[in-house]
Design goal:
- The structure is a homodimer.
- The first copy, chain A, has about 375 residues and is an alpha/beta fold.
- The first copy, chain A, has 2 domains: about 5-255, Rossmann fold; about 275-360, Orthogonal Bundle (Tyrosyl-Transfer RNA Synthetase).
- In chain A, about 50% of the residues lie in helices and about 10% in strands.
- Chain A has helices at about 20-25, 30-40, 45-50, 60-70, 90-105, 115-120, 125-140, 160-170, 175-185, 190-200, 205-210, 225-240, 275-285, 295-300, 310-315, 320-330, 340-365; strands at about 5-10, 10-15, 30, 55-60, 75-80, 105-110, 150-155, 215-220, 245-250.
- In chain A, helix 8 crosses helix 10, helix 13 runs antiparallel to helix 17 (about 340-365) and helix 15 (about 310-315) packs parallel to helix 17.
- The radius of gyration of chain A is 21 Å and the shape is globular.
- The two termini of chain A are about 40 Å apart.
- At the A-B interface, helix 8, helix 9 and helix 10 of A face helix 8, helix 9 and helix 10 of B.
Chain lengths: ~375, ~375
């Protein structure tokens, strides 16, 4: 790991160098050829793929080979509840929903409600609280448009009669030394946290167990989760199952431009339950790539790559490439000033969140049909 | 731990010094006063208590105080399946069944079918195999006369949707350092085995969770299991539940006189599924306390304390104290020779096993009514 930044599933520090991370983790880029192969089946690429927000992969070419042979894949992703979801949390689910639609893929969504309980030190994050949050997260997720007939969502504590047995099979192949090295744990880590990575591994081969034959699996995730599967993929191979393919997303930046919008820094994240005033105030504080004064900005223009406002459009709120180019150009040529720029983004986000909440209400009574128990 | 012997849940080596063990573990004897208090409720003492086979305890006086106040206790014990049960394995269940009868106690029996899978290195001990063995163990256990309405039996892998959540609460308070020190684990221990002790802790407070109020718990166990609860009792206290009381049994000796009849040394144990010839052959090889020749034995007599045949009567096969005394006297005064002695014991064991198997057949179709899932 470079000394300039640090990426673990529990903390991201410094300015992430995505190419260096990929190199160090041994993951490959999603190159033009792979994008073309995906587009062959999907018609058009999701903007998160075409724009390189999903930028790296493991074994994606193999997954598409299998698909070509008629061997359909399922998609596995998840979220560990710790509070309201941020817009950054939605990135894996947005791609997953698109994959379900385009590939008619079955989707497994794990909500490890014990994870933050075990890894956090806050005493108020009880299992009762994470359980509540888990159901709220599940509702946020299904509201993106998942199909009940093709989507299985489960909490670790509620689905453990299925998961724990398989986790034990995984755990037998993982020593404390391995976990210590991979996650930087010490001897003072608690034994639930140490064991946890085995639980996260299970959905990557669970469908193969259930069907009694190997089923390819694709995992969209943000890069901080890759380390779990660096260990798990080897073990899953040893157990005789296909190793899962992975596509890796970059982090949505924080409001202040830090590499990752982290749910644990409340002032720097936009939450799905933020009200309109809060969103306006937060975006008002967002880092832009603009000059120090309006005059200088008009004269020299700004840098959209450093501008959080532009990046939120690129990652999330402007799917149309031509419109995105206009926004970037207006930032670059100085024709759009920060205030106007931010007001427009805040309005766009508020409109998105308003619609999202409407969809949540429609999905609320359907939620049970997505959830698995035992 | 003394250097002369070693007791862990996975291995017992050397000649166990039970008093030294109790001292080192910080456990107290079951003294005459405690025995009298028990007998006050039960009428007569079970011979395993009166003979000091159960010889030590934690917090037993408190448990009886609670009982006196009308606060009934439940009993928790268990077995980790690894093969057919030995007669030694029955000792905690025999006392548990007696406690159920005498105190009208509810009984929780945990069958951790992942434990030997995780702690063993034999590749043929799969989870499928331990699952099979677990059901055979459950049948052996209920055949001792447990009441279906008052007995709950569960396998860890089948009951994990209940157990795992509670185990996570326990695990959060246990560091790898603690497990390393207590069990002598190294960094090369697998993370499932490291986590396992949390699963074993759960049934000691599960009834309190279920009832939403504290219920006293009594755990009969062989001393090698005490270490799990040395850690767990503190944690259970921190979680706000009553710490469980424990009664500790000595080990049934192996045929060769080694301290513990271990299921992993097949030649030195009597299994519940041994046939009559096997039992005769095994008892024929058992260590006795007799002199080298019949003539010397007639002249000087033997030592019943060193005689495995006498000890099997004492631990298990002769509940009647007067009859036991006759057996011991006949060994001591030289009037009974090894061959005759062994033939009688083998016949007694075979009769016990024959009846046990008959009971098993009667219980087989009732077994489901004891088992919990999810």
């Amino acid at each position: 790991m470079s000394e300039k930044y640090k990426v673990t599933p529990w903390k991201v520090e410094g300015v992430v160098d995505y190419d260096a991370f990929a190199k160090q983790a041994g993951i490959q880029p999603i190159d033009e050829e792979l994008k073309k192969r995906i587009a062959k089946y999907t018609g058009s690429l999701h903007f998160m793929l075409s724009r390189g927000i999903y930028y790296a992969q493991r074994q994606l070419s193999w997954l598409l080979d299998e698909y070509e042979k008629g061997n359909k894949f399922y998609v596995y992703t998840g979220i560990a509840p710790s509070g309201s979801m941020t817009i950054g949390h939605l990135i894996p689910f947005i791609l997953t929903q698109w994959l379900q639609e385009k590939f008619d893929a079955e989707v497994y969504i794990q909500i490890p409600d014990e994870e933050k309980f075990l890894s956090h030190k806050e005493p108020d994050l009880t299992l009762e609280r994470t359980h509540e949050l888990a159901y709220e997260d599940a509702l946020d997720i299904v509201s993106l448009g998942f199909k009940p007939s093709k989507t299985k969502i489960f909490l670790d504590t509620e689905y453990a009669s299925t998961l724990y047995k398989q986790a034990a099979r995984v755990a037998k192949h993982i020593t404390f030394s391995m976990v210590k090295d991979a996650f930087g744990m010490t001897n003072e880590a608690n034994i639930g946290w140490i064991f946890y990575t085995s639980m996260q591994a299970v959905p990557a081969f669970l469908k193969s167990v259930e069907e009694g034959k190997n089923v390819p699996c694709l995992i969209p995730l943000a890069i901080d989760q890759d380390v779990h599967f660096r260990i798990a993929r080897d073990v899953i191979g040893k157990l005789g199952y296909y190793k899962p393919a992975i596509v890796h997303a970059k982090f949505l930046p924080a409001l202040n431009g830090a590499s990752k919008m982290s749910a644990s820094d409340k002032t720097q994240a936009i939450y799905l339950n933020d009200d309109e005033d809060t969103v306006r105030a937060k975006i008002g504080r967002a880092l832009t790539g603009q000059q120090a004064t309006a005059e200088l900005q008009r004269k020299y223009g700004g840098d959209p790559d450093k501008c959080v406002v532009c990046q939120y459009y690129r990652y999330f709120f402007e799917p149309d490439d031509r419109k995105l180019k206009k926004i970037f150009d207006a930032e670059r040529d100085g024709s759009m000033l920060a205030g106007e720029h931010k007001a427009e983004l805040a309005a766009t986000i508020n409109e998105y969140l308003r619609k999202h909440r409407q969809k949540k209400e429609r999905y609320r009574e359907k939620l049970d049909s997505f959830m698995l128990e035992c």
